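Chapter review: from sequence to fold.
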Amino acid sequence: MNFEKYVQKGNLFLKELAEELGVPQDKDRAGRILRAVLHALRKRLTPEEYLDLVAQLPMCIKAIAVDGWRITESPDKSIKDVEDLIHAVMEEDRRTAARDLGNEEHAKEAIKAVIRVIKRHVSDGEIQDVEAELPKHLRQFIEEA
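The token string follows.
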């Protein structure tokens, strides 16, 4: 196994995300936001669908995606709309949410940035599978990101 290759691909992903977020020199911030968004999504998706989604991401990003996860968790149906997703992401970012995400409008734009980068790395079919599991407003939000 070539761990350096995995690290390099993960760093390229974070660099791409940092640029998409408008903070090209802050991969740490991009990583925290990515982690928060991925963990909020895993709360909402079935474990099978979440694993299908992250399977297409770079190895280091997969590690971030599943860190601390108990796979037996059921989807959190209380995440019904964009505001619920924003709150879940801010909760996941906890101590650094104010600095990383700012207000809800900035958080919404950051989530869209993460989704855009994920869409560039995941097949259209998988994105459609994820969208199919979501309520209408969340599905539209991801489609429009």
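Two observations follow directly from the output. The chain has nine helices and no strands. The longest helix spans residues 3-21.
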